[in-house]
Amino acid sequence: MPVPLVSLSKLEGGKDPLVTIKTAEQIELMRQAGRISAKALRKTGELVRPGISTLELDRFADNLIRMEGARPAFLGYGGFRGSICASVNDQIVHGTPDAEVRLQEGDIISIDTGAVLGGWYGDNAATFAVGQITAEAQRLLDVTEQSMWAGIAAALPGNHLGDIGYAIQSMAEAAGFGVVREYVGHGIGQDMHEDPNVPNFGRRGKGLRLKKGMVLAIEPMINAGGSETCGPFEDGWIIYTADHSLSAHFERTVAIGPDGPEILTKE
Ligand code: MG
Questions:
Q1: How far is the CA of 201 from the centre of ligand 1 (A)?
Q2: Rg of the chain in Å (alpha carbons)
């Protein structure tokens, strides 16, 4: 689940943000929350098909997360009414699960799942095809996922936040797609949203220097058309592409290890 691009550090006058460093023991606790988040994402994704409602997906994920002994991280967060975010087609993120929203052949749906276990958070997302989708929609999904992996590969100790953003942005823009600016990834730990902001755009060698023990949610949101967003409207949550082009979203929770990135949201 991304955050609006309003860095705490900016509010505090441009100093480097206060980024918590996790111990090996704390990262182990985050692996457990991450495993449940990943299982919820995979299993909920397996239910995606024409005719199912986004509320049915939400109820399934909520039950799975609780059966694993965790709590859905998004439910009640800032007043959010779902246990997952379910964002269809031109919805970028923060789609509210809804009994009236039934998936149709050819749709794409971004599902974001988070679990909190023993006070530690996991957060991950992926975009799924509903039945047969167009070649262009499939290319959007493929490029967005690849850009996430490129960003993760740049999450090395001694690199900078700008290296992550640059890797994502350059790949997505080379494919002709728009990179969402107003919503970004984030630090994560005992809060779902910690400093720093993790933008999906940036310049090499710029921004906060990455250190072992930082844990980041890396989550490109990529539009088939322009990068501009609109919303939220009356519901207070759902963010859309301004030009109503399709949008995809992939996310992993990633620990910066001594030698490189480690995915914490994996089974
Ligand atoms: Mg997130």
A1: 16
A2: 17
